[in-house]
Design goal:
By secondary structure, the chain is of the alpha/beta class. The chain has 10 helices and 7 strands. Bound molecules: S-adenosyl-L-homocysteine. The site of S-adenosyl-L-homocysteine has 17 residues, from strand 2 and helix 7.
């Protein structure tokens, strides 16, 4: 407990939230962000959860970055959902990013956090009660297996994925989980036209299309972020996702392999 008292306060950044993402956290959400930060700092002493540990870095690279991807759903007409209660999945969530901040900011969304590493999910499971969150579900699973389970296949309105692999690999992990008409968001840093061309071909094999690419600088360190919005138009072909490991070893590309 003594150690926990030494953990610094996160900056509130109310103005910056408002000007950059057109949103502000409530007092309850500010408390939940702080508790999440404390849990990560304490958890980092037991296992390697993140290298991002100063309050400003944590605010920008974990909280703000996580919420950037979903902010556009409020401000961009063609990304808007009619329903306000969405079923969301975050694949390869690690210590809970982007899914945990997204669940904190949107208490009426049900958020399923998935990672293939038991230790990461155990950490999240221990953290949820401290945050007083009711809208989180956790699963230890490989994306390739989950996408073949009838209960999860084409079940989610929205799927998120950050820092898990190449864009085409991420697309194969998450698009099988999205319902027809739903969206997937790839959280990326740097992005070039050739990345779009590569991803285009993978995404069309998965019955989907790149709907929008959003570029924005992070508010403190001004590093570039890209959010790639994929719209699922058709049911996924039976052969996807391929067996565990295959999407990563042979990413979908121009050649249908
Ligand atoms: N999304 C988090 C963590 C990124 S690290 C963040 O942005 O901070 C990548 C995570 O993906 C690791 O925790 C790893 O265990 C998980 N992962 C990698 N391949 C996976 C797969 N095929 N299915 C599920 N989880 C996977």
């Amino acid at each position: 407990m003594m150690n926990d008292l030494a953990i610094k306060q996160l900056p509130a950044m109310l103005e910056l939230w408002q000007t950059t993402l057109k949103w502000q956290p409530s007092d309850r959400q500010i408390t939940q962000f702080q508790k999440l930060y404390e849990a990560i700092i304490v958890g980092n002493r037991q296992q390697n959860l993140t290298r991002i540990t100063t309050p400003e870095d944590f605010w920008e690279k974990h909280l703000w970055d996580s919420l950037l991807g979903v902010a556009l759903l409020r401000t961009e007409a063609k990304l808007a959902f009619k329903d306000s209660e969405l079923n969301i999945i975050d694949i390869g969530t690690g210590a809970g990013f982007p899914g945990l901040p997204v669940a904190i900011a949107n208490p009426n969304w049900e958020v399923t956090l998935v990672d293939s590493t038991q230790k990461k999910i155990t950490f999240i499971g221990n953290t949820i009660p401290q945050l007083n969150l009711k809208n989180i579900h956790t699963l230890v699973a490989r994306a390739e297996n989950l996408g073949r389970e009838p209960h999860y296949r084409e079940y989610f309105d929205l799927a998120l994925i950050r820092a898990v692999g190449k864009p085409a690999v991420c697309a194969e992990y998450i698009l099988p989980l999205v319902k027809v008409g739903g969206l997937a968001i790839l959280y990326r840093g740097h992005w070039e036209d050739k990345d779009t061309a590569n991803l285009d071909s993978a995404v069309s094999q998965l019955g989907s299309e790149i709907e929008l690419i959003h570029a924005q600088k992070t508010p403190i360190s001004e590093s570039i972020r890209h959010c790639i919005y994929l719209r699922k138009h058709f049911p996924i072909a039976d052969k996807y996702p391929r067996a565990v490991g295959v999407p990563n070893q042979k990413p979908l590309s121009k050649i249908d392999n």
